[in-house]
UniProtKB/TrEMBL annotation:
One of its GO terms (molecular function) is hydrolase activity. Keywords: Hydrolase, Signal. Gene3D superfamilies: Cell wall hydrolase SleB, domain 1 (1.10.10.2520). It comes from Wenxinia marina DSM 24838. InterPro entries: Cell_wall_hydrolase_SleB, SleB_dom1. This is Cell Wall Hydrolase. Residues 1-19 form the signal peptide. Residues 47-144 form the Cell wall hydrolase SleB domain.
Length: 167
């Protein structure tokens, strides 16, 4: 085969991969690693519901015009998640469960009560803002949407609920 043909085949292979026609797994390794890191460092000692809720917030941010449009871009965004989230080691026996939950979120699973929430904090923290509409508390975190104050109908964290996700 000549050089020109090789270039054509290489170009077609690149186009097919870019269009999603390759035989690679649907979950990209770097997105899986970034999602795992977000879940591990923000909710690794919690329930599966807590892990899926953190992943749901990451995906809500990916879909928003206000945040980066990739999982890694969201997770690595300065000041948004735990310092060192992209570089600290993850030495835990829970890591396989966290990775499984991360893969489930990347395949489309979402926590049913997170809704459009793009923020969360430790459930024990009490913020003094009037624009926080809470949607669920799971895995030790309270998840919320930012709304205009007059549209907030749930201004304080809800009691923790668990057992809502599939897994």
């Amino acid at each position: 085969m000549g050089q020109a043909m090789r270039r054509i085949f290489l170009g077609l292979a690149i186009l097919a991969a870019a269009a999603g026609c390759s035989r690679r797994p649907a979950v990209h390794a770097s997105a899986l690693d970034c999602m795992t890191r977000a879940m591990y460092f923000e909710s690794h000692r919690s329930s599966r519901d807590g892990l899926i809720a953190v992943g749901s917030v990451v995906m809500n941010r990916v879909a928003s015009d206000d945040f980066p449009d990739t999982v890694c871009g969201v997770v690595a965004q300065r000041g948004q998640f735990t310092p060192g989230i992209m570089t600290n080691p993850m030495p835990s026996r829970a890591l396989p469960d966290v990775q499984a939950a991360a893969a489930a979120v990347l395949r489309g699973e979402r926590h049913p009560s997170v809704g459009r929430a793009m923020f969360f904090h430790a459930a024990t923290y009490r913020a003094g803002y009037n624009n926080m509409h809470y949607t669920v508390t799971a895995g030790g975190n309270a998840f919320y949407e930012r709304r205009r104050p007059e549209l907030v109908t749930q201004p304080s964290p809800l009691p923790a609920t668990e057992g809502l996700t599939r897994g």
